[in-house]
Input
Amino acid sequence: MLEDLISLGFKMVWASVGLFWLWSARDVKRSSRTEPMLLQLAVYWTPLLLAFLLLGPSDWFQGGFLNERFIPKALWVKGLGLALAASGVVLACWSRHLLGRNWSSVVQLKQDHELIEAGPYRYIRHPIYTGLLLAFLGTALKVGDWRGLLAVAIVLASFWRKLGVEERWLSERFGHVYVAYQRRTKALVPGIL
Output
C-alpha cells in the first residue's frame, strides 16, 4: 500500500515537471543566439532520453550488472528518494518561474536577455540543473540499481557541458557583471560546486 503511494508520488513528480515545462514554455522571448540543432540533440536530448530509459522497468536489464542493487531494497530508501525528487522538482520549477521569459530548454541567449539573481539564483547559478539532478538522484534511489546511478552520471555530464557553454555566453553578454556573479555563487551546490 505505502509502496504503491510512493510509486504514484514519483509519477506525479515527473508528470508535474513535464506539464509545468510545457505550460511555461509558451511565452518566452525570441532567441538571439542558439546552438545548432544537431549538437543539441547529441549532447542534451539523447543523454536525457538514455537516462530515462535507464530508469525504466528493471526487466529491461535482467541478468546484467546494471540491474544489481547499490542500496538496500527498503521502503525508507524509496521514501527518501521521493522526498529528494519532489524537492528537486520544486527547486527546478521555482527557478524556471523566476527565469520567466528568459528561459530556454537549450543553450540560448534571448533578445533583451536579463541576468536573474533572485531566489535560488542568489546562491547557485544553475538551480534548474540542481533541481533536476536531485529529481534524478531521488529516482535512482527508488530504482536502487546501478543503472540509476549511471543515469544520474549521464545527466550530470550533459548538464555540466551545457552550463559551461551557458556561462561562456553569459560572460560575453554581461561582461564584468557576470564575472562578479560567478565569484559570489557556485554553479550547482551552494558553497561547494
Observations:
- Strands lie at 31-34, 108-110.
- The mean pLDDT is 94.
- The first strand starts at residue 31 and ends at 34.
- Residues 30-184 form a domain with the Four Helix Bundle (Hemerythrin (Met), subunit A) fold (CATH 1.20.120.1630).
